[in-house]
Every structure is written in C-alpha cells, then in structure tokens.
Specification:
With 805 residues, the protein is of the alpha+beta class. Helix content is 32%, strand content 27%. The strands form six sheets. The protein has a six-stranded antiparallel beta sheet. Strands 2-1-5-4-3 form a five-stranded antiparallel beta sheet.
C-alpha cells in the first residue's frame, strides 16, 4: 500500500489519486488514504471485500482489468460507486505484482479523476507550439498569456505586416477597446463570441484580416468563469474574396442606373476608385457614343477612342492627360490597343517596354506618369454581345501595390458588367434617336394659319429610360373659320409607338376633313385602333394585360358662336383660363380608351369668351411620383393663372413649374387663346323654299359685299350663291339658310334640313344639270359639305380680292 501511495505521489496525484491492492482472487487487500478521500470508504470497510463490489456496474470486472486470469498491465476508465451512492468516473491503471517464480501475487491499482502531470505538460506544449495564435486571459489577475505565434515578434517580413493582431490589440495604451470590451462580455456572460480585426491598410500590401474566436474558461469544480480563451485565424484571403464579391455586387446596383452611355461609363470609373485603382479612364469608340453599331470582333490596328469618363483618388483628376470628350489615338503597342486587339485584359506597367514607348509618344501623358508615379496598369476591353465598345484603363500610382492576377480577374468582371450596361445604353440611344426623329417628322413643324385661335405648343420626350413615347398634338383648320384642337397619347414607347402615333394623327386629320362632330370622329377612330391592335400595329407595354392602344381629346372651336365642342377617349381633361382670371378643369363625360369598341362617346359644349386660354396636354404633365393626379390638376391651374407676356412664355413657365428634371413620360402641351368673329364679319339670312328667292339671295349678297368693300368679289360670289341656293331648294329641305363670313377668306355657306350630301359628277352633253358644283369648284379655292344636327351645310371658300379689307 505504501508502494502504491509512493507511485501515486510519483504521478502527482497526492490529493486526487488513489491506490488499492487487489489479490489474485479479486479481494481488496490494501486501501490508501487517497482512495478514502476519493471514494469515501475507510480501509476497514473495504479490505477483504471483492473489488467488483465497488464497480457501479456489476459484471464489469473484465472491463476494469480486475481478473485473476491475466497478469498484464492495464489502463482504462471505469465507473465506481462512492460511499454515498453516486457514480465516480475514474481513470484506472493496474500494475501486476509478481513473485520470485513469476506468479501473480497482487494488483496495484491506481485511480485519478484529474489529468496526469504528463497530460498537463502535453497541454502546455500544445498551447506553446500551436500553429494557431492562442491566448488566455485570467479574470482574477487581469493578465494575458500568449503562445509563440500570437506574440508575433515583428521579425522582418517582405510585406512588413504582422502575422497576428495581438501586439496591436493588447498594446498598452494603444490597446483596442473594442476587443477588450468583447473579452469582458465573454467573461461576464459566459458565452462565446467572435471578433473580426483588420490591420491598418498598407498601400504596398493586401489588407490583412483575422477572425478571433473567444470562449469562456470555467473551473470544472465550481463552474465559475476564471478566464477567456482566444484562437485567431488569418482570414485575409476570405476577406479579400468577400471584398471582391462586395464590389461586384455593388457594380450590379451602381453601374447602368441610366440609359446614358457617358453616365454609365462614369459609374464604372467612380466604382473602381479607390477600391481597385488610383486612377481610371474609360474610352469608347466614337460610333458607340452616337448609338451606332460598331464593327464586330476585336480591334487590331491603331484605334481612335473618345474619352467619356475618368476618375481619380485625387481631387480634380490631375492624372488625366486627355480631356473628357476629346479623341486620342492609341498605337498598336499601347496597353489599351493591345487589349482591344486580343479581346482580353492586359497587365502592364513601368517595367513594360511597350508601356514606356507608348508614354514617351505623348508629352503630357509622359509628364503625368512621372509626376504621379504610374507603375502598374491594367487595360481591359469593354465587350458585349460579341462587339467591342471601348477600353477601361486602371492605374495604380506610387505607394500602391502592383496589380496581380486576382486584380486582373476582378477588372475583367467589372468591365464585362459595365460593357453590357454601356451596350444597353448605346442600343437605347440608337432606338431613341430613331424614334425621336420619326416622331418629330410626324408632329407638325409649323401649325397651319387660321383665325379662330392663337396657339403655342411644346413637345418634350421622356428624360429617362422609358424611351420616346407616342404623344402627339395637332391643329386642324375646319370650314366656317372653325378649328380642331387635338392631343393624344399612344400606349407604349419606342419606334412602334411613334409609328402608331403617326398613323393615328393622319387618321384624325382625314376624319377632320370630313368635318365629323367630335363624338362621331372618336367613334371612327376607335374602330381604326381596334383594327390596328388586332393587326399588332399598336404596341402595348404588356401585351397580356389588355391595355388598349391610345387616348385622344378632340375639340372643335367655332369663333362665330364662341362654342367649343369636345369629346375624350380616355384622355385627361383640358384646363381653361377665362378672361376674368378664373381657372378650372373642364368637366367632360369620360369615354374609354381607343380600341375598346362598342362604347359610345359623348360631346361636351363649352362657351368660351373671347380671349379664353385653353390648355390641352398629355398625362405626363400632371402625373408624378410625389403627388397624385388631383395635385397635378391644382398645380396646372396655378401655373396657368400666372400672368405671362405671350403664349410661348406661358408654355415654358408651365413646363418649368410642372415637370421634374428627369421625366418618366413624354409631355405634349398645346395652348390656344380663343378669338371671336364679331357681328360686322358675319351676315346670315333665312330663305324660303322658292326658286324665285335665288334672285333676292344674289341681291342681298351683292349689297353685303359692298358694305364690306368687296365689290370685286361680287360676280364670283353671286354665282356661287346662286348655284348653292338653287341646289338647296331643289334637293334639300327647309329651313334653308345663307351665311357669309368675312375673315382671312370669304366664305359662303348654304344650309338645309336634308342630310343628303351633293357630289361632283361629269355632266354629259345633253344633261340639263350636274354642272353647278363643278362650276363652284372651279371658281373657289375650296368647297365641301359638313353634317349638322339639323341637316347639312355646303360651303365654298374664296380668297379676298387684292387690296380688300
């Protein structure tokens, strides 16, 4: 037993270790004081008993190594019963004791709950020699212990960067408070945490990063947190990869925010500085800036490029040797031209003879390279959909580390994403230019002369990626000095919308020549749009949503009666400013969008005093993100009421007050100030249905022309009156009326209650009639028929005599 205690002391278990002697028969023959402290049994309670009785699991003698059938040394673990009944997990080691003849005399069994001194030493060695930076913090003393790696003795290294962050984290007054606070929280809360540390950026090296795992260290006996352990892992590669992914993800949101070529190129330059370069330039082929299609394939000769964007880490971009908008020629051996020729990024710099040769050919570029220390350059082609658009050049100046393969891959990825955005902008520019040219060719360049209204107009295409839309307006002179005011909007954008707009505008002018009332004109126009939609000519924004082709507002103003008759097909109502200064939005009976079919349109009549201002417009004027349509109406009324010296100035003021800098939709605005024909410009008579009245009509016409000083027009006018009145008496129905209007032309109108319209026909030799309208057509500059609610009106128009009023 003494020998057992001595062995236990040798292994450093004087307080925790226990020893017992077990005879060959399995009975306990010796029991140490250490065993009593460990299991609670006194020697007299154990000696003489079978050793297996102490096992928590009966029948596990073989497992415990207590057997008389073997004399081999054994080590293992077993669960024994404490005197008070609880289990005690012990590490056991059985040493056979042999007699002189080699026979087994007894087993000396040692047991311990704690680790051995050898185990403790092994842990010390593992801590000190670990390839991972480890440390422990003792809460009671507030002291730190670092292993060799964590100490980081600052021996000279090529990158001049620390291997671990501990010298900075625990550097006295320079200690990092964030890390120390994290240690305190782990000690207080008893929960593990993670801390990420970044070394101060060193221009000549990649930024280092570490992840430090912290965990509480507890006393096994009491469970109290007595310290904090840390393990540090170098995450520089993962951090760099994460930074690259972050930059690429940012590229997805920051490059291509608009459909402007130059702006997209500038977004690439802004993103790359300072994350990837100290200076960036983006040059494009001249065709790209105009929206044209460049030649496919790589560029294999000296190439002329236009500088569209550049950016620098220094304020004012002092490194730039080429001004924005200027054209520069890149020789074939220059890095930009080489990258364009091979279609891949090219890594170059001060050590590259071709780079030095290229710089030497341009005095200003050479000066910039020397002044700012250009030493590392990446030239990356901008290619998308198989075509070359231009080149991006990334430069690092003195103090920054040279570019590596990872940087080249990142630059290529950024350039690829930017190239797609640039090409989208180029294609949009081309389509927008084409659509805008088509639309402007279809819109009226100069409005026709007429006396009914004074007009001014503006058309503004969309200022964003929505593209040119199908907004249009028109002013159409009608018979009897009346005028038609038209504004419309085709659903959709682009060339197809512009083409559809042109077809609708032509259709409106054609129907206006027939002199249909507004509601009937929109009914015919609705049928036309239905046919165009079914043929696929009216383009929808979303074909499956059921959106129909276009909206239209058609208004006819008569300066004689001062009545404006208007009808709407899904269009926003006009605004009116009366001479007394009051403004209002005209209350129309709303009709459906054109193309619905089967739904009638209704006309609204509005009497307008002379000098009233009527505003017709498309919805782009009043709709905005920051207010609803009703708010747009109120803003329009306020803008319309502001006194202005002319209609053109009023147009500009309304657009300035109503529209943001960037518009999502086209805007068409048509302003019309009404005029009126006074009583001394109009003469009218009611005529009976009697052939004898024709002579009286001629006489009344002659007297009225004399009052107007138009005697030179009397002969022609009397012939026209005679023919038209005769036709009305012969083929029409009462009541019959004659009206003369003196304006910029002399107009003769004869109305009757019949809706049957006359037409020209070729009279044969022996025909008694059929020559009257032919003669009227020969004597006047124009004639026609219009339907009225009470029948029809036949009119003829002739120029005023030279020198007439």
């Amino acid at each position: 037993m003494a020998a057992a205690d001595q062995r236990a002391g040798h292994h450093g278990r004087s307080t925790d270790a226990a020893a017992a002697i077990i005879g060959p028969g399995g009975d306990v023959t010796g029991w140490s004081e250490g065993a009593r402290r460990l299991l609670g049994y006194r020697a007299q309670e154990v000696v003489g008993r079978a050793a297996v009785d102490l096992l928590a699991q009966q029948g596990a003698a073989e497992t415990a190594g207590v057997s008389s059938t073997t004399s081999q040394e054994w080590s293992g673990t077993a669960a024994l019963l404490h005197r008070d009944g609880h289990r005690v997990e012990l590490a056991l080691h059985a040493h056979p004791s042999l007699g002189a003849d080699g026979s087994l005399q007894a087993f000396v069994v040692t047991a311990s709950q704690g680790e051995s001194e050898q185990d403790r030493q092994l842990l010390e060695w593992a801590f000190a020699q670990s390839s991972v930076a480890l440390s422990t913090y003792t809460t009671d003393s507030g002291t730190w212990r670092l292993n060799e790696v964590a100490k980081d003795d600052e021996r000279p290294r090529p990158t001049n960067a620390r291997l671990t962050p501990y010298p900075d984290l625990l550097g006295g007054i320079r200690a990092e408070q964030g890390f120390l606070e994290c240690v305190r929280r782990v000690a207080e809360r008893g929960e593990p945490m993670r801390y990420e540390r970044f070394a101060p950026a060193v221009a000549s090296a990649r930024q280092r990063a570490w992840i430090i795992e912290l965990w509480p260290v507890r006393d096994p006996a009491t469970g109290r947190v007595t310290g904090v352990g840390t393990a540090t892992f170098d995450s520089s590669e993962q951090y760099a990869a994460r930074q690259r992914l972050t930059l690429l993800n940012e590229a997805g949101t920051r490059i291509g925010t608009t459909l402007d070529v130059a702006r997209t190129a500038q977004e690439l330059a802004d993103l790359a500085v300072p994350h990837l370069a100290d200076f960036v330039s983006v040059d494009l082929l001249d065709a790209v800036t105009r929206g044209e299609e460049p030649a496919p394939g790589p560029v294999d000769a000296a190439v002329m490029l236009r500088r569209v964007a550049h950016q620098s880490a220094a304020e004012g971009v002092p490194e730039a040797a080429v001004e924005l908008g200027a054209v520069d020629t890149y020789p074939p051996y220059s890095p930009p031209a080489r990258s364009l020729a091979v279609g891949r990024p090219v890594l170059s710099g001060a050590a590259d003879p071709d780079f030095a040769r290229w710089v030497a050919t341009h005095a200003e570029r050479s000066a910039r390279v020397r002044e700012f220390g250009f030493h590392s350059v990446m030239a990356t082609p901008l290619r998308a959909r198989g075509i070359t658009l231009g080149v991006a050049v990334f430069v690092r100046t003195h103090g920054s580390r040279p570019y590596g393969d990872d940087d080249l891959i990142l630059a290529e990825e950024l350039a690829g994403r930017a190239a797609v955005a640039v090409d989208n902008a180029r294609r949009y520019t081309r389509e927008r230019t084409t659509a805008l040219a088509l639309q402007r060719s279809l819109l009226p360049r100069a409005l026709p002369k007429q006396a009914a209204v004074e007009v001014a107009h503006r058309y503004l295409p969309a200022g964003t990626g929505a593209g040119v839309g199908g907004d249009w307006f028109d002013v159409v002179p009608l018979s009897g000095t009346r005028v038609a005011l038209v504004v419309g909007d085709v659903v959709g954008h682009g060339v197809h919308a512009s083409a559809a707009m042109g077809r609708l505008r032509t259709a409106v002018r054609t129907l206006a020549d027939v002199d249909l009332p507004p509601d009937e004109l929109l009914t015919h126009l609705d049928e036309l749009v239905t046919h165009l939609t079914s043929d696929g000519d009216i383009v929808h924004d979303e074909p499956d949503t059921g959106e129909i082709g276009a909206s239209c507002l058609y208004a006819v103003y008569d300066p004689v009666s001062r009545i404006c008759t208007m009808a709407s097909a899904g269009h926003v109502p006009p605004a009116v400013l009366l001479p007394d200064g009051s403004t209002s939005i005209v209350r129309l009976t709303p009709g459906p969008l054109l193309g619905i079919g089967g739904v009638p349109f209704e006309s609204t009549e509005l009497e307008l005093p002379e000098g009233s201002l009527l505003a017709l417009y498309t919805d782009g004027l009043i709709e905005a993100r920051d207010h609803d349509v009703s708010g747009g109406f109120e803003r329009l009324r306020a803008a319309l009421a502001s006194p202005m010296p002319s209609l053109d100035v009023t147009c500009e003021a309304i657009l300035k007050q109503m529209l943001p800098d960037s518009r999502d939709d086209d805007v068409a605005l048509l302003l019309a100030r009404t005029r009126a024909l006074h009583a001394d410009q109009v003469a009218a008579w009611a005529l009976p249905s009697d052939p004898a009245v024709v002579a009286d009509a001629r006489a009344q016409t002659s007297r009225q022309l004399a009052l107007w000083g138009l005697q030179d027009a009397a002969f022609t006018t009397e012939l026209v009156v005679s023919e038209l009145v005769t036709n009305a008496i012969r083929y029409g129905a009462v009541p019959i009326g004659l009206r003369l209007i003196r304006d910029r032309t002399l107009i003769c109108e004869v109305s009757d209650a019949s809706s049957t319209a006359p037409h020209l026909r070729r009279a044969r030799t022996y025909d008694e009639g059929g020559r009257g309208l032919h003669m009227v057509a020969q004597l006047t500059q124009g004639w026609g028929t219009r339907q009225t609610p009470g029948g029809k009106t036949i009119w003829a128009e002739q120029p005023l005599p030279v020198g007439g009023p």
